[in-house]
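name: query_chain
kind: protein
chains: 1
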Amino acid sequence: MSDTLLPASHTAREPHYMDVAQRIQDDIGNGALRPGARIPSVREMSRQTQRSVTTVLRAYEHLEACGAIESRPRSGYFVRSALVAAEPPPRTAAVLSGPPSLISTELVSTVLSTLNQPDFFSFGHTVPAQALAPVAQLNRIARNLINTAPNLTVPYLMSPGYEKLRQQIAARLSAHRVATEPDDVIITSGALEAINLGIRMLTRPGDTILMESPTFYGLLQAAEEHGLRVIELPNDPQRGIDPDDLRRAVQRHRIACALLVQNFNNPTGSLMPEDAKREVVRTLNHAGIPLIEDDIYGELGFASGRATPLKAYDEADLVLYCSSVSKTVSSGLRVGWIASRRHARELTRRKFTLNCAAPSLSQVIVSRYLESGGHERHLRKVRTMLWQSIERFTATIQHCFPEGTRIARPQGGFVLWLELPRTVDAVTLFQAAARERVAICPGPLFSASGQYAHHIRLNCALPWTPQTEQALQTLGRVACALARLPAAAPYSVA
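structure:
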């Protein structure tokens, strides 16, 4: 069971039921409540916490929806037994010695081309299904804006971007322990543009950047595009990077900046514990090394809700915070941001020289949506749906994939990271699945040094339909066939 923690102190914006939910989650995480143990009754917990019965019941409903506990008729609530028990999670690869390298651009191009095939069933792109977006509300806002303020589609909203949107982003960050002013926020065309702006400002070609492994291949491609050398830190599928590994890397290498995704990392779904977050940021602050934080999945925690950003521990103002609405509201609107008090003026200038401004209408739509007050309710619904989807995928994989397949236990987000038996080469599986018109992302994409030759990543933010189930079963069948073959030579990324 997850040991995910909410922030130690909540603001007035955090609903009271989350305090109760966190108390139970803490007991589950530290072993005081073990799988199968009975949870105190609603009335008993109400007395213990001095919260209303309604508040406690809402906490229990939240934990049940997230899969932490389960209700049994006429018996009460119990800690849920972990679904994934047969196999341990995927293993963490050791840091390779030798000069830093980068993944094959040929492999990236081949995979991206396959993922974009219109007649393929794709588990590759990390794009949430339409059912997970507030489509009706966004469309209603868009229609109203076009009818009542048609001029919004014409002018630039010049960098740093739409002021009301920047105010809302700053308020949301401040509510989660990241003291932010609207002038600290620069609106971008998605989170990847924000990250590229940060890299472009902090580095020069030939510099060294510190990243985790595995990590999103788009970030590795960004590093390559800027001519950077990559030093990798092992990323544990449960707890993220080890602060001691980071400390040693800082001592051994001259590092221009770090780029980390420690809230529900893509592809592992890992979540760094709070004490480790504090230690990582303190080490980088002390060394004077800036950190670009990609927190695009930070609001998608299953049992924990919103995870604390690394930026919350940034006493030296050296963390550039990047995120977007692409995974929570809409990918197509292309609204992201980068927040930094120290570098706001320079980032505003660089955003202008790059492409002047982010899309005007999109910024106003997102602003009106956040202003409407329904976003937190939407997030609670999405978290539940994503957890349920992860569970369905996991159950099917356990049934259909080769014996010995290791499945990550993500604490948030919507991707699954699998380690297949050593006889199954991930790129060979990618190629064989493509012949069945099923697209996946092979593991070597997620490492600068081409590791994870037996791993794959699956997008689970998909509607569970007969087509989804059939495609996943087809992938399992192909993997089983490869598992029975003699071990092949590893795919070369040279």
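note: The CA atoms of residues 189 and 359 lie 7 Å apart.
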